Amino acid sequence: RRGDVTVPLSPLPAPPAPAMLLRESPFPNRALVALDYLARGLLAPSFWATNHLLDLRPTTAERRSRCCSCAGRALAALVYAATLLVSLPLTVLGLLLWLPVQAARRPFAYQYTAGTAPAEPWDLRQRRAFTFLSANVCLLPSGLAKFSNLGQTPQRATYIARQLAPAPPSPAGALVEPQHVPVPVALAERFPADTDFVCLQEVFDAGAATCLRRRLGGTFPHVLSEVGDRGLRCSRLKLLDSGLLLASRYPLLAAQFHGFPNGAREDAMAAKGLLVVQVLLGSARGQRVVGYLGCTHLQAPAGDAAVRDAQLTLALHWLQLFQEAQEQRGDVVAFDVLCGDLNFDNCSRDELNQRHRLFELYRDPCRRAPGQDEPWAIGTLLNYLKIYEEPVSTPEKLRRTLSEPAGRQRYLAGPILASGQPDPVAPSPWQGRRVDYLLFRPPRGEVAGVTFVTQLATRSDHLPVALRLDVVPATCSF
Predict the structure, then answer these.
(1) Nearest-5° angle of CA 101, CA 106, CA 109?
(2) Quick one: average pLDDT of 147-155?
(3) Residue among 105, 139, 84, 87 at smallest CA distance from 37
(4) Transmembrane region positions (predicted)?
(5) pLDDT digits (tens, 9 = 90+) for 248-303
């Protein structure tokens, strides 16, 4: 034990099971689907009442608008509390049914939208560019989202889905000319229109996941959602899945999810872990051209650096095992990318996570050294109590504000101590806490651009990040 957090003595478990087949339903038969619907129906009244009770907590914007009186909130709280009390027998029955059903559930659902052209053969004399997007969208049930000063999850999910999928699908990675220039960096108001892969975190709300899946299917034919092992796992009750969602323009050959066994405190209620996929990008010289993409979300509390350290070690181990299991003789590997909300930054006093072996194997284009980011990099975690203020209330205003050091100082979360409290001696103006990462494994690519996106102003407390990677055929391995 380290502090009050239990860390496994050996972070490397037994070899995992083979990668799961990609199936539309997470359940193996219709009977289990029906039982799952029945269990959720029995749990629905208590969930509705609890969610609405928590949703009475006002955001800073609601406090300013005074949209509901204290008397009205008190009356509503009584109604929701009474509903919760009355529904307790149904909740117990629903849990007794839900738990064994989850034991038979596969760890993700796969959506394939037909009608897209297959990837063209790849001439290895030409380079291709691929764009990756990672974003923590904070799509929890509205009541839980209030703890991040957010709410209205259905409305936010609809907006996010529309912004992520405005363009028609692209049949192949863009051809690029050789370039030898510094990394182009942008602070943009819109998501890149040429995004090939979308990796989202905190898509915990079922309705939000459905909304995203349906909308993204028009642009990204391959979507993995409902990712994670719910129910009793490692002697702990997982009420939420991992919150991960992955969308791809390219076919998925294999996918696998691993749940972290050491989640602690409030994070223990979510099935956080690593989702890793193998992507078919085309063919060259009669062989497959593939890419590997991992998406994860680590332990959140600032004081749990030891937990995150163990999770990073597990993630590296699982990535290696997955690639060894899926590779075929003659495969051309175009890229190996890992992204997600790692819940630590490179500006605070957190040497344990900042010096993890991960950064020896994968390159972080925004990082210069442990504890030091590139001068152009900015934080991705906003000061959640100020996200509704006028200077950051639209994507355009947020972009302009964060373009200035004073704006970053006021509206981005600053360096913290190990306890999570603000660091009183942090130099200012700061770049902000960059907790959202897009890493790639050299030498399979060159950075063509990094973009920090302000599209989700007032809709999330994180800035999405995009990475454009030029794949160099000469560095692909057979």
Answers:
(1) 115
(2) 95
(3) 105
(4) 75-99
(5) 999 999 999 999 999 989 899 999 999 999 999 988 888 899 999 999 999 999 99
Query: What is the signed CA dihedral for 200, 371, 363, 465, rounded to 10 degrees?
Result: 30
Strand (E) or helix (H) holding 187: strand 185-188
Distance CA 145, CA 387 (A): 14
User: For the segment 394-444, what is each residue's pLDDT rounded down to a tens digit?
Assistant: 999 999 999 999 999 999 999 999 888 999 988 888 899 999 999 999 887
Overall residue count recorded for the chain in this entry = 478
Q: What residues contact residue 463 under an 8 Å CB cut-off, 6+ apart?
A: 378, 379, 380, 381, 382, 436, 452, 453, 454, 456
Q: How far apart are CA 348 and CA 367, in angstroms?
A: 13
% of the chain with per-residue pLDDT over 70: 89
User: Alpha-carbon distance 348 to 198, whole Å?
Assistant: 28
Please state, in angstroms and rounded to a whole number, the distance separating the CA atoms of residues 412 and 431: 8
Find the farthest-apart pair of alpha carbons in the chain and give their distance in angstroms, rounded: 72
Which is the catalytic residue, given 52, 222, 356, 462?
A: 462
Catalytic residue status for 258: no
Residues 6+ positions from 71 with CB-CB distance below 8 Å: none
What would the two tokens of residue 405 be?
Answer: 């050091």
Q: Hunting for tokens 């923590």 — which residue is that?
A: 136
